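Re-run with default settings, no changes from the original entry. Doing this only to confirm the output is reproducible before filing.
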Amino acid sequence: MSHASLSPELEAVVARAAAAAPAFAATAPEDRARALVAVADALEGAKPRLVEIAARETGLTEARLTGEVTRTAVQLRLFADTVVDGAYLDARIDPADPGFALGARPDLRRTHLPLGPVINFSASNFPFAFSVMGGDSAAILAAGCPLIVKAHSGHPELSDATAEVASTALAAAGMPDGVFQLIHGREAGVAVLQDPRIQAGSFTGSIRVGRLLADIAANRPAPIPFYGELGSVNPVFITADAIAERAEEIARGYLTSVSGSAGQLCTKPGFVFVPEGSALPAAIEAAAADFAAEHRLLDPRIAQSFAERRDAILGTPGVRTIVPGALRFDQDGQGWATPTIAAVPLAGFRAGKAALVEEAFGPLSIVVEVPEGTPLAPLVPEFFEGNLSGTLHLGAAEADGSTPNADELRALVAALARQVGRVLFNGWSTGVAVTPAQQHGGPWPATSNDASTSVGSAAISRFQRPVAYQNAPTTFLPAELRDDNPRGVPQSVSPAGESTAWGARWR
């Protein structure tokens, strides 16, 4: 069936994805895992060529990009093991129980199945790890869903080169035709997202564009899930004890986190709360000379937006500069920046909240100076919506919970946990570990769905849906729901007879 809203080229893309869906969902987990590893190996084999293209298109350093290719390969290999392990299927078995507390219980078995074709919108600031074959793409393919990637306009040549490497590897691994395809252009991406054959969408980028795409997905005649990673300012709280013990170390870690990748990271610490009159501003100023090298921003549009935000922040009453930084534009309109660290008293932050609290996507961060005796936990909801992370730097005794402010710090941690996806201690939020327990998400506007993560093995669950089989003969059951469990996946079994004892131990 042809869909009139799509061009012939896009119709062919979506039709291939839809046709591939049943066969791809039925692939053996081991075969899907081998395909993911084949892509990982191929990307690392093509690393020199891909990094050269990426550096030219994005302005990011060769060292950063080389590490990002490695991260992308590790993500793919993590999902290969995840697929075979099968824990993500959350296989649950309730055998038939004639003595069930509410009357006879049928045999019920629950697992998860792939959604079907998914479109992933690439990010600009991670041209490998959140782009064509990045974390979202890896999770989509691991889940057994055909993938259509909308390339980012900031690195089109790299997108094509990466897609060629991935397509060749997937085909050589025996994956069905149509399992992976690449398209270009925002209008093309929107048109595909609206097509009824597409079953989910993912995105990493700005709040404005993410909200637009999320609304399109939600307003379709048949709404679909949309997983967007959007904006985050990642507040940091540093105690007086921590500053007294390691001001220089904290200052250097802060500047490293703010300046890395020219500050164009969703996990950059945007605001740091410190005691009024602390030694940290002076330590930051003293360390700044080692972070004075300028770095190119991703593209002229991002550079211009950063210039406007920087001017607005520095022009707000009460704001002063600790590290003035700089931003210049070359003949091509590309922006070159050095880190800017500003400071403002808590009262000035309150008065200028509207101008200050919005994310500055670039190497800029604000130190907020808090008067002694100010409760810290209420500051979190006062100034921030959802964030990807929140951080607390403690002194040694505070980490043991043996100081008079222990209850206040516990309240602060609880306040952060309510509004972020990851709470860090004595570290910095940039450098997200790719590991099974990672949570890279958070309440709006950090993400469009705060129950999900875009990093870690749990990311696969976004692209599956639950289904239960009732009184099914064994021959019709997915392997993970059979009593003999041929795949050896984790199963949660609720034995017959236990329902009459539910809750008894709490009487």
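Residues 8-230+452-464 form a domain with the Aldehyde Dehydrogenase; Chain A, domain 1 fold (CATH 3.40.605.10). The mean pLDDT is 96.
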